[in-house]
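Amino Acid Chain and Its Fold in Token Form
===========================================
Scope: a single protein chain, as residues and as a discrete description of its fold.
Amino acid sequence: labelled as such and written in the usual single-letter residue code.
Position: the record begins directly beneath this header, with no further notes in between.
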Amino acid sequence: MVLFLLVVIVAVVLGIIGAVAHGLLYLLVIGAVLLVADLVLIAMRWRRSGRQPQR
């Protein structure tokens, strides 16, 4: 969970820098892609943990 939060923070910071700094729009794109990838990975982890067979 700590890794998830760290990646989200990095994505937000890259997005802010990319939006504010002139000519660094690619950082905004990298931040958005990183955020989406992180959300997909955490969704897959939650989905996999919910399908444990009960004994």
Summary: The mean pLDDT is 83. Residues 16 and 55 are 48 Å apart (CA to CA). The two ends are 27 Å apart (CA to CA).
